[in-house]
Specification:
orotate phosphoribosyltransferase activity; 272 residues; alpha/beta; binds 5-bromo-uridine-5'-monophosphate; globular
Amino acid sequence: MPVHPTTTKTYEQRAALHPNPTARRILETMVRKRSNLCVSVDVTTAKDALEVVKRVGKSVCMVKTHCDIIDDFSFEFTEEFVRLSKELDFVIFEDRKFADIGNTVSLQYSSGAHKIASWSDLTNAHPLPGPGIIQGLETVGKPLGRALLLLAEMSSKGNLATGEYTRQAVSMARDAGRDFVVGFIAMSRVDQGQGDDDWLILTPGVGLVSKGDKMGQQYRTPREVVYESGCDVIIVGRGIYGIQGGEEAVKAEAERYREEGWKAYEERLGRE
Ligand code: 5BU
């Protein structure tokens, strides 16, 4: 198990250490709902997306979207999504993976058909283009109290975000400070050995049944992710919304992942 000081602190203690309002809200929501589960709602109509959200909403601290896969994306959709995020108490994370120069990403974040900054609390970016990508996104997101994650590692087989690239991603976040960048998408405690700052680590590629798909996705269990690797939030997509058995089965599977994720966190703190 990683020994980074962050992994031995409670989410409550960590909330107090974050200058960014969205980071604090994420940690406080996790505590309130005893949930380190983010459900990834990768369906292609607004109606289906909102239905999944209603089913899993009570069990999650966060809902993740890919707004560009929704056929009938509209302002009405985001309005209802934001309303549900308040009613059911979760944070919205648009998994946009920005990857361009600062000026372009600032426009992609604020404008176009999706106007991501207007409804999404959290988004993410590849560090590939250099620190200008943070500056571009920050000009739009920081005044709104939004937050950003950098992609330091990925879950897919053969990806290039490893070794020195990952180390440089952490270093770029440290140079930016924690006012807007609040953590990483990563598979492990990538901040290990790079300072004692508190960073949130959100981890996709989580499944209790399957070990992967036919297109390179790789799954680990909530325990492997939270207890063994010291990550903070588990991101689960098809393992929850794709389960057979209708509405009740989806709800029950979300609860199962919530329980598994929380148990692994308590085990990490030595509460078990
Ligand atoms: P799945 O159905 O649990 O495999 O979905 C995983 C989600 O997380 C999906 O939306 C991906 O785009 C996202 N993801 C990922 O799987 N791996 C990564 O490294 C990153 C994002 Br970054």
